TrEMBL record:
<protein>
    <recommendedName>
        <fullName>VWFA domain-containing protein</fullName>
    </recommendedName>
</protein>
<feature type="domain" description="VWFA">
    <location>
        <begin position="26"/>
        <end position="240"/>
    </location>
</feature>
<dbReference type="InterPro" id="IPR036465">
    <property type="entry name" value="vWFA_dom_sf"/>
</dbReference>
<dbReference type="InterPro" id="IPR002035">
    <property type="entry name" value="VWF_A"/>
</dbReference>
Length: 253
């Protein structure tokens, strides 16, 4: 899969304090920042990202193995972020930041819901990062992509589109080949059609949650990352996800 983000590690990360043999776990947060997220939802998301970042830094097992990238779709179109900074399209810099160095972006809500293109970019940057790790002789856990939206896929003019359907067979093949695990989360007042799209994207790991429980969602992603490190079977991930869907954060116990 081609990528406009070549697997190039920025110079300022050249001497980061990773254990040389530590396996990496790429994690992409693919976040809806369209106009429907304006007001309390985007503020809740920003607050949750700040709190999750603190928790991630404090988690010894995750802070030196997880690498975080953020992809947004909204007022800036589709954008990849390296920590708090959006990357210009075509910039030869990887958006992945080691978790112990990650700083969250301050997101604003505007624009349309280019969900299809955002997921495609998420897959591209994951493929590019895996290629870089292989070239460096480093191993990695199965990457995770977490899609969060309160809407339905639109085109650049804001009209509903069926372009998302082209992703369904691609996502099925990629996940069957265990190239990444996709979580597709609907929040707020997502419609029945929006739920249908998420079920098609991630048949096992989709959910529609009342309100905007971003803190619980990010905690679930951390729990999933911990399980990935331990080589857990699919049933463990399904249990973690089921607990999240019912908003019982049993992974904290």
């Amino acid at each position: 899969m081609s990528s406009e983000y070549p697997p190039t590690l920025p110079a300022e990360y050249a001497d980061i304090e990773f254990e040389n043999n530590a396996q990496r776990l790429p994690l992409v947060l693919c976040l809806d920042t369209s106009s429907s997220m304006a007001g309390p939802p985007i503020q809740t998301l920003n607050n949750a990202l700040v709190e999750w970042t603190r928790e991630l830094h404090d988690d010894v097992s995750l802070s030196y193995s997880v690498e975080v990238a953020v992809v947004t779709f909204g007022g800036q179109g589709v954008a990849a972020w390296r920590g708090p900074q959006p990357l210009a399209p075509g910039t030869p810099v990887s958006p992945f930041v080691p978790a112990h160095m990650f700083r969250p972006p301050q997101l604003a809500a505007a624009g349309v819901t280019l969900m299809t293109e955002a997921l495609e970019l998420s897959m591209q940057i994951v493929a590019a990062r895996k290629a870089e790790l292989r070239a460096s002789g480093l191993q990695y856990y199965r990457p995770q992509i977490c899609l969060v939206t309160d809407g339905i896929p639109t085109d650049a003019t804001g009209h509903r589109t069926d372009a998302w359907r082209r992703l369904v067979p691609v996502l099925a093949e990629e996940q069957n080949a265990r190239r990444f695990r996709l979580y597709a989360i609907g929040v707020g007042g997502i419609t029945d059609f929006g739920e249908q799209v998420l079920r098609a994207f991630a048949p096992k790991f989709n959910a529609t949650i009342q309100g905007f429980p971003f803190r619980e969602l990010l905690q679930m992603m951390s729990a999933s990352a911990n399980a990935e490190q331990k080589g857990a079977g699919d049933e463990v991930f399904e249990k973690i996800f089921s607990q999240f869907k019912t908003q019982r954060p049993a992974w904290e116990s």
